[in-house]
Amino acid sequence: MTDSRFAEPFVTRFFERFEVKSSGCWEWWWGLTSAGYGRFWDGQRQIGSHVWSYEYHNKVIVPKGMEVMHSCDNPACVNPNHLSLGTTKDNAQDRVKKGRGARGQRNGSAVVTDKEAERIIRLLNARMKREHICTTIGCSKYTVGKIAQGVSYKHLPRGEQIRRRRRQSGLSNKQARYVIRLLNSGMKRKEVKELVGCSEYIVGCIARNETFKHLPREG
Ligand SMILES: [Zn+2]
Q1: Residues 28 and 47 in one domain
Q2: CA of 82 to the centre of ligand 1 (A)
Q3: Domain encompassing residue 85
Q4: How far apart are CA 22 and CA 214, in angstroms?
Q5: CA of 84 to the centre of ligand 1 (A)
Q6: How far is the CA of 73 from the centre of ligand 1 (A)?
Q7: What is the pLDDT of residue 86?
Q8: Which of 10, 130, 188, 206 has the highest local Cβ count within 10 Å?
Q9: CA distances from 194 to 15, 129, 144 (A)
Q10: Which residues have C-beta within 8 Å of that of residue 116, sequence separation ≥ 6?
Q11: 160 and 130, same structural domain?
Q12: What is the band of 1 on the pLDDT scale with cuts at 50, 70, 90?
């Protein structure tokens, strides 16, 4: 395979960033989206680590309108044997079949659980585009729109509350150490941000020694 996205450094990075569980799942621990999917920088874009895994192991590119589904129902899993291709619709139906969509279902158009609706709110607060939220969660634009307008799932906490929690969650020590190493190597903040999959704000805070002060800075 000659695709630069599957060049040596990315493959090595990929295999360093998950833990093999007794369930057989390869559980990604590096960076997770609020929906629980792994994040991976492939040199060109930030993609789901499960998507990268599927493409790498099957030597295909996931076509538009299709997404990578988990047979194990574990969004952080990147084991190619637990991954398959389906349409966004398949994925939503799969959730309903597995009972994950049952609770929020009142009129047949809502296919997300409270937990997923909470994730949608978090992603909206993080200013993720609605169409990306649809693919991440596997629901319709209509559902996301209704939640955004505050029409459905009114009982869930909104705004600041969640935003604050998200900001606190930030990076792990391991990731912060990696950021420091990259900064020390002379890499630009913007590149560090993309490689680690965090905000440039956090990288700046670490660079100015405002956060993660307990970590060694040199070497
Ligand atoms: Zn799995």
Answers
A1: yes
A2: 5
A3: 4-97
A4: 34
A5: 11
A6: 7
A7: 85
A8: 206
A9: 19, 18, 26
A10: 35, 100, 104, 137, 139
A11: yes
A12: very low
**Do 54 and 118 have their domain in common?**
no
76 shares its domain with 88 = yes
- Count of domains forming the chain: 3
109-121 pLDDT, tens digit each: 346 777 888 888 8
Inter-helix orientation angle 114-125/130-137, to 10°:
150
**How many whole angstroms from 125 Cα to the centroid of ligand 1?**
29
Q: Do 163 and 197 share a domain, yes or no?
A: no
Q: Is residue 17 in some structural domain?
A: yes
pLDDT at position 101 is 44
Whether 36 maps to a domain, the answer reads yes
3-state secondary structure of 154: coil
* Cα Rg of the chain, angstroms: 18
Under the banding of pLDDT at 50, 70 and 90, the label for residue 78 is very high
> What's the 78 CA to ligand 1 centre distance in angstroms?
7
What SS3 state is found at 27? strand
Centroid of ligand 1 to alpha carbon of 71 (angstroms): 7
113 in any annotated domain = yes
How does pLDDT run across 44-76, given as a tens digit for each residue? 888 999 999 999 999 888 888 888 999 888 899
Query: Residue 11 pLDDT more than 90?
Result: yes
| Together in a domain, 64 and 37 | yes
Query: Rounded to 5 degrees, what angle do the CA atoms 50, 29, 198 make?
Result: 85
Distance 24 CA to ligand 1 centre (A): 6
CATH number, residue 20:
3.90.75
